[in-house]
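G., the chain you wanted modeled:
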Amino acid sequence: MRPTRLHREPLRAGTRVAGVGGYRSSRVIGNAEVAGPIDSSDEWIRERSGIIERRWARSDETVVSMAAAAGTAALADAQVRADDVDLVIVATASHPQPIPNAAAAVAALMGTTAAAAHDLGAACAGFSYGIAHASASITVGQAENVLVIGAERLSDFTNPRDRGTAFLFADGAGAVLVTASDRPQIGAPAWGSDGSLGDSISMTSTIIESGLRGQPAPTIVMAGQTVFRWAVSEMARVARLALERAGITAADLGAFIPHQANQRITDALARSLDLPDHVAVADDIRRMGNTSAASIPLAMCALRDAGRVESEDWALLVGFGAGLTYSGQVVNIP
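Predicted structure as tokens:
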């Protein structure tokens, strides 16, 4: 086993996203399949969320296996070997087994067994939090290559009869490799939390209650209108602060990639920020649904694969969700 390297180099000039990768299940779930149990329709779901279809994992696709596949794709994109990774961060809210953590299992699957590895629990803001932690670790010389993965299997925690959530949540994984750079290509985060609104997105029960006391398995519940109003009002402020901390304006952006929570939220934020016409606005939710911590890297992959962004374009990332937690930062597209 390769011992973890100790880094004693001086502070780095900056960090960058060197590669990006994603994993999407082949199991496509259309609106018709989820509409029946909630007495709804394809038209209602599209109007309310923008979602046309979503991906749900097959029985053999786990948070760990999907995360490893996305991480491997990001390393290939960056042309970096697995054994050169110093830290693996897995942002997830749906790994069903807290001990051992998902990140250590992912590292083992990928062949990065000497890397430090930890999970990060900040729900839909988790990936953006992970970018901030990765950038800081590299800047102070604690790591050279950090793999940040968002991976979710939210279909396991979705009540198919809950009219407020049954059509929203989905499964998948996305990843980036963060490395050192001779100039800053990842902006400082604009992040925080508001625990006073924690009940707005929560679970019906705890793991202990469901496992030891014979209650039904916990599922996600959400006060949709409360979350919508909070996201539209507060995340515009966070987005502007992230731009300010990066030293750029909306006119300098090539892409706006918010957490894919709801297309109506994305559209409202884009209007509030008065984005120029040339800025590509992520709309991956239409085909993927809400994949929480995985949604931003998956949307980044989709924009790049479709040729809607180019390498070295500035992209504004904004994550927000249960907690309530939020985080935004500007990054260069690899």
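The mean pLDDT is 94.

Shout if anything looks off.
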